[in-house]
């Protein structure tokens, strides 16, 4: 069967199902089902159940529901209010003011969590209501959160780097080190964008709080102590080896419960609400993840991504042209598949091509992670968009539009990393030199 | 009937919430085990089973609360009649797909039992036991979609809820 | 034309996968394209624990599994994971010959067939600190990733820690894991030399990867194609065992060039570990019953 025809049919059925209001997780299941029944010789049902079970019960995923729960607990404490109280005086002078809390919060949280959905959900749960209350416009708040949430993948620890490291046979420790500066670079670009936006939309940024003396600012910062303690405790547990990156989420939940108890906001009702809220939010994400796992399986059987990658390899491109082609390829793929699936499905074909072109595999890993980050915020299938839809109730296309500038910024980051590869390669060389 | 169904959805969700706590306890257990040996082996696997159960058992309840996301752009743009027709269509698709999901989930658990499929980890759990949660959860989701479909057919105005943050 | 899918959990560059890819190509060539086998490396179709089940249900017509992974289900799957029962390539080959009829029978009952099996390079001990005897492992944080490695920890008094493969790198860097048992090849793949400095080439056991096929899928082929598959499988088996030995030599050299001390175990360490092996074998025989005893007896007679 002609690949082009298959692609067209699957994309059309995806848009038809999504557009007619079929729930997103079921839409992915439906497209996968159509693809497998029509274009592969295999019956879909048993393979679907087996693969969904495998992904839904996978131990590495436990970090996601636990961080979602941590966010729900913190959301019900005074913590986020306190955090903003402490940060606001310092950010008065910065164009965009508290909008930067999204980006800074995600950058910090990314050092704790390896997943972009968890980063987006946890920081979003705390920041969204508070920013709304203070009168910041929804568009830029949601957009910057969608973009910054993806930092969960680039700043170590990172689930996707582990997957890439294992398939590409490169050191995961080096990959983690390589992600630090590109992560800070993307964060910096996002902040620069927010400042620029603020400069052009002065009327939409709420007025600054009254000026404070330095001493008053310091006093106000005391309310930051609980947040800082929580983040330090979780980070510390990872870097001292008390817990692995996945287990850190469980310590995060315990820490959040202790904090909320210390603040006196923990009672039966808030505990129950946070637990049920987390269960439902995670359930929503899990249904989509189940559909995505099945779609990945279906693509594996049909072989579409593989064929496309093989075709790119057959073109005999120069390294730069190859990278551009791969970027376009992954961005297209990223519209329909989630990040880890993209890497798993194509690495077998893409790696030899990349190695043949003499491209450094650590550097390429960072390139891939940024491209995957972009995939998290492109419609119709973008997990950060889904998480934000679940939290704000806004329409998917609207959220995607708000996130579009972040997509462009990440393309910019890719360009910078191509021109200055040291951004990615310098730190691993320093760290691992013995 | 109404009360029975709602009790079913909500009861399963309470179980799901307990499984969420189970996930937390199992992951915490793995941390503690590294410093002080606990009597339970294979807690990493149990954490995965509890997580899966938490997700599947709350599917129906989450649907009923309108928290499973969908694209409602077209639905909202249509007039009352068009909206009802499209809502019936999308619910019909959902009934079909969730039916497949439920059927094959049940078949997975049943086959695991007849194949004597056992976890390859240290836990050595017969897999049909945790997979039962998937079978039950997806079956409830199917029932909930049929329920919604029936309500829509009987003329309940398509209620496209906005989810609050 | 018939199409088969063959999932494997290991990356495309792994020597097992390279061998399987060659096998798939050989089958295609020998049958003039009548049977096309698509290899799905790196868990891109099914993950490691799902592959056996997928082959059994014919969702994948063939697949590669690590036999010891399935010990919980049937003890003889785990026989090649018992320390010092077979501690060289020659012995491992004999153990395979003794195990094979039972494997074929069991897989046959489950609707599958064994095409061929290839051993991983022999398992040694990685440690942060030098080891003169098993006593030096007391209290060491030892990575347990299977029932056998967990039991070894108990017997030598090490502290068993469970860390998933995905997080091994970080666990080594932060000192969560200080010692573990695996092959030189896996040590190179997981870059263990970045954190652990000593490798003791105990050659404790040589676990095998098996390529299995769904019986219905195989029976559906015509006789000539079946023969071509079996012939290619036999060739892959020979090629695989030779590749494994080559990889073993190469990877031990790689460990050395990366600054690791690679040495044979001291007499004390070796005899300590052999004692551990005896306990494990005894416990295994209790669980495996007469079926297991028969395999071990057959092996010892060879
Ligand atoms: Na991260
Ligand atoms: Na996308």
Automatic annotation (TrEMBL), chain A:
Membrane topology note: Multi-pass membrane protein
Main location: membrane
Chain ranges of the TRAP C4-dicarboxylate transport system permease DctM subunit domain: 12-423
GO CC, alphabetical: plasma membrane
Matching InterPro entries: DctM, TRAP_DctM
Residue ranges of the TM segments: 6-35, 47-70, 140-164, 176-200, 221-242, 248-269, 281-302, 322-354, 361-383, 403-427
Database matches in NCBIfam families: dctM
Functional summary from the UniProt entry: Part of the tripartite ATP-independent periplasmic (TRAP) transport system.
Subunit structure: The complex comprises the extracytoplasmic solute receptor protein and the two transmembrane proteins.
Protein origin, superkingdom: Bacteria
GO terms assigned for molecular function: transmembrane transporter activity
Compartmental location: Cell inner membrane
Protein name per Swiss-Prot or TrEMBL: TRAP transporter large permease protein
UniProt keyword list: Cell inner membrane, Cell membrane, Membrane, Transmembrane, Transmembrane helix, Transport
From TrEMBL, chain B:
GO MF annotation list: transmembrane transporter activity
Tripartite ATP-independent periplasmic transporters DctQ component domain location: 25-154
Key word Membrane present: yes
Any single GO BP term: C4-dicarboxylate transport
Keywords: Cell inner membrane, Cell membrane, Membrane, Transmembrane, Transmembrane helix, Transport
Subcellular localization(s) per the UniProt record: Cell inner membrane
Keyword Transport recorded: yes
PANTHER family (alphabetical): 2,3-DIKETO-L-GULONATE TRAP TRANSPORTER SMALL PERMEASE PROTEIN YIAM (PTHR35011), TRAP TRANSPORTER SMALL PERMEASE PROTEIN (PTHR35011:SF10)
Subunit details: The complex comprises the extracytoplasmic solute receptor protein and the two transmembrane proteins.
Annotated function: Part of the tripartite ATP-independent periplasmic (TRAP) transport system.
Protein name: TRAP transporter small permease protein
Record lineage: Bacteria, Pseudomonadati, Pseudomonadota, Betaproteobacteria, Burkholderiales
């Amino acid at each position: 069967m002609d690949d082009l025809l298959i692609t067209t049919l699957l994309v059309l059925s995806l848009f038809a199902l999504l557009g007619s209001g079929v729930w997103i997780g079921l839409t992915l299941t439906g497209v996968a089902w159509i693809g497998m029944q029509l274009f592969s010789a295999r019956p879909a049902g048993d393979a679907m159940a087996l693969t969904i079970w495998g992904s839904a019960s996978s131990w590495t995923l436990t970090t996601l529901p636990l961080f979602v729960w941590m966010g729900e607990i913190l959301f019900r404490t005074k913590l986020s209010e306190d955090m903003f109280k402490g940060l606001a005086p310092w950010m008065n002078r910065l164009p965009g003011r508290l909008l930067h809390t999204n980006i800074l919060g995600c950058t910090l949280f990314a050092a704790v969590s390896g997943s972009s959905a968890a980063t987006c959900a946890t920081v979003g749960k705390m920041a969204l209501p508070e920013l709304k209350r203070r009168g910041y416009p929804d568009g830029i708040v949601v957009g910057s959160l969608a973009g910054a949430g993806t930092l969960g993948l680039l700043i170590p620890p990172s689930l996707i780097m582990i997957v890439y490291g294992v398939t590409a046979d490169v050191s995961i420790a080096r990959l983690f080190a390589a992600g630090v500066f590109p992560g800070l670079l993307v964060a910096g670009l996002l902040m620069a964008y927010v400042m620029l936006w603020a400069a052009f939309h002065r009327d939409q940024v709420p007025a600054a709080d009254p000026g404070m003396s330095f001493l008053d600012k310091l006093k106000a910062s005391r309310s930051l102590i609980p947040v800082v303690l929580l983040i330090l405790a979780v980070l510390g547990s990872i870097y001292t080896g008390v817990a692995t990156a996945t287990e850190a989420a469980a310590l995060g939940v315990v820490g959040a419960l202790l904090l909320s108890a210390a603040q006196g906001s923990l009672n039966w009702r808030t505990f129950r609400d946070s637990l049920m809220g987390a269960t439902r939010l995670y359930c929503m994400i899990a249904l989509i993840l189940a559909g995505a796992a099945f779609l990945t399986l279906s693509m594996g059987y049909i072989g579409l991504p593989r064929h496309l990658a093989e075709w790119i390899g057959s073109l005999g491109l120069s390294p730069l042209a190859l990278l551009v082609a791969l970027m376009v390829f992954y961005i297209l793929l990223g519209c329909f598949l989630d990040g880890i699936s993209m890497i798993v499905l194509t690495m077998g074909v893409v790696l030899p091509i990349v190695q043949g072109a003499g491209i450094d595999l650590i550097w390429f890993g960072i390139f891939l992670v940024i491209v995957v980050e972009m995939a998290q915020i492109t419609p119709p299938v973008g997990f950060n968009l889904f998480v934000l839809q679940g939290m704000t109730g806004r329409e998917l296309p609207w959220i995607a539009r708000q996130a579009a500038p972040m997509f462009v910024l990440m393309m910019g980051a890719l360009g910078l990393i191509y021109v200055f590869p040291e951004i990615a390669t310098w730190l691993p060389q320093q760290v691992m030199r013995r | 009937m109404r009360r029975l169904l709602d009790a079913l959805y909500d009861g399963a969700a309470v179980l799901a919430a307990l499984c969420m706590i189970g996930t937390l306890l199992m992951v915490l257990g793995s941390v503690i085990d590294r410093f002080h040996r606990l009597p339970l082996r294979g807690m990493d696997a149990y954490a995965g089973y509890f997580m899966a159960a938490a997700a599947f058992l709350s599917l129906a309840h989450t649907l009923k609360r309108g928290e499973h996301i969908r694209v409602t752009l077209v639905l909202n743009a249509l007039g009352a009649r068009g909206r009802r027709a499209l809502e019936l269509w999308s619910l019909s698709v959902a009934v079909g797909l969730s039916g497949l999901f439920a059927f094959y989930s049940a078949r997975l658990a049943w086959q695991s039992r007849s194949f004597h499929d056992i976890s390859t980890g240290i836990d050595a759990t017969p897999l049909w036991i945790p997979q039962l949660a998937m079978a039950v959860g997806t079956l409830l989701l199917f029932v909930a979609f049929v329920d919604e479909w029936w309500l829509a057919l009987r003329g309940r105005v398509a209620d496209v809820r906005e989810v609050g943050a | 034309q018939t199409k088969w899918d063959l999932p494997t959990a290991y990356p495309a560059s792994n020597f097992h996968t390279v061998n399987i890819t060659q096998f798939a190509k050989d089958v295609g060539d020998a049958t003039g394209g009548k049977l096309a086998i698509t290899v799905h490396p790196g868990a891109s179709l099914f993950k490691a624990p799902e592959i056996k089940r997928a082959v059994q249900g014919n969702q994948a017509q063939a697949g590669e599994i690590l036999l010891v992974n399935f010990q919980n289900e049937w003890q003889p799957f785990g026989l090649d994971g018992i320390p010092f029962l077979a501690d060289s390539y020659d012995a491992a080959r004999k153990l395979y010959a003794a195990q094979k009829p039972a494997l074929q029978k069991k897989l046959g009952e489950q609707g599958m067939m064994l095409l061929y099996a290839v051993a991983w390079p022999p398992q040694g001990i990685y440690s942060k600190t030098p080891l003169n005897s098993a006593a030096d492992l007391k209290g060491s944080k030892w990575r347990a990733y299977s029932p056998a490695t967990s039991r070894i920890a108990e017997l030598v008094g090490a502290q068993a820690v469970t860390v998933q493969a995905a997080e091994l790198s970080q666990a080594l860097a932060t000192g969560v894991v200080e010692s573990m048992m695996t092959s030189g090849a896996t040590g190179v793949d997981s870059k263990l030399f970045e954190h652990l400095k000593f490798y003791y080439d105990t050659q404790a056991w040589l676990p095998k990867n098996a390529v299995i096929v769904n019986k219905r899928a195989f029976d559906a082929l015509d006789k000539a194609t079946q023969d071509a598959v079996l012939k290619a499988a036999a060739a892959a088996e020979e090629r695989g065992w030779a590749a494994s030995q080559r990889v073993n030599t190469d990877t031990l050299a790689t460990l050395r060039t990366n600054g690791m001390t690679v040495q044979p175990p001291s007499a004390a360490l070796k005899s300590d570990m052999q004692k551990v092996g005896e306990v494990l074998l005894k416990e295994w025989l209790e669980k495996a019953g007469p079926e297991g005893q028969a395999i071990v007896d057959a092996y010892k007679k060879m």
